[in-house]
Amino acid sequence: MRRRRKAKIIATLGxxxxxxxxxxxxxEAGADVFRLNFSHGSHExxxxxxxxxxxxxxxxxxxxxxxxxxxxPKLRVGEIAGGEAELVAGKRYRFDLDEMAGDRVRxxxxxxxxxxxxxxxxxxxxxxxxxxxxxxxxxxDYAEALVLAGGxxxxxxxxxxxxxxxxxxxxxxKDRADLRFGLDLGVDWVALSFVQRxxxxxxxxxxxxxxxxxxxxxxxxxxxxxxxxxVELSDAVMVARGDLGVEMPAEEVPGxxxxxxRSCRLAGKPVVxxxxxxxxxxHAPAPTRAEASDVATAVYDGADAVMxxxxxxxxxxxxxxxxxMDRIAxxxxxxxSYRRLLHALHPEPEATAADxxxxxxxxxxxxxxxxxxxxxxMSGSTAIxxxxxxxxxxxxxxxxxxxxxxxxxxxxxxxxxxxxxxSSPQEMVDKAQRLARQEGFASTGEKIVVTAGVPFxxxxxxxxxxxxxxxx
Length: 472
Fold this sequence. Notes:
By secondary structure, the chain is an alpha/beta fold. It is 37% helix and 23% strand. Helix 10 packs across helix 12.
């Protein structure tokens, strides 16, 4: 099954999309990767979904990626007497470590690490920013704050502390258990929530130990200050606009989204744009025009993938949401200005043989009018370099490692095929010709550009470029 677009689609699974028939329909509608959101559902729920995905993969004959999204540390207020209390603008409100139920003048905030990061002037945002307070006085176990925007404060509502680097590990006890479970299941990607600094990736890397690729979710303003380092240390990055939109002014989010995409493209790291992309389709059969434009903007900017959350996990129209995102992406890529905008940012190749070969492959393919670039890869690095060039033609990725094929399912322009490795240049050309024709990328007489590494089967040795004519 060949996609007629280069940007990929990640669909979140949930109550609305847990049975085999729906998951298959989502795949056929355009989903390339499935997200398992461990903020919701039991381990058994996620096990069943992954088993369905792997059975579908065998049936379809195409690698499908699976993303485990860890919940991360969630900061919440404690109990409120009667379930809620009204906070009045202009009044003062207290937070402390006392477990006694809150009321109209105070509430428990059972997170000493929050108090450790506070100082006078710090903003506190509650309930996704609906309530806004500013700290006036604080200590290691309390904070007195002025209510700037009031309203009802309910039990266990979330707390955001924009502008502060909290002394928190991004991996909670629950995350560690979820991670062990997911790795044993065989997920391909792990999305790490609440990343603030490079050190936050170290523990996750140690625990994952190469069994999955690591995706950093950029959802804190503090992460933007260390963006270059985080991109360098991650295998991929997600623009997680939900919390990011709470913790910084909404008008700044589009610019920061472009900054993140640009940083990832320059570094050659896959980048995903997520959250509320087609949000109205949770309950409506069609998106707003603004939402369609939002998806198109991410595609114009060259994002590797766009993601659906509640739309496919808990909405009334999960399959229709994927189909709509597929149509928007495909239509955008056919627009006459798409290539011009995409190539406005063209990363310079590094001074390595691998970068020289992949940069040359894109140029050669354009010059000779090749039908496709065929990339033989073991670790996936050759294909990632090829995608970094954003070539005009599709990238047919051939790999003997199924885990590589699955991980690259979210890579821009890549169509992955799991196949046995080759042992000679002639076998390489023969296989590239056969699979390019078999997978629908080239017809007899058309040209393809082939890249590989010699000696064959050795990761990180991209040093060979061939032009081949597809034969019967």
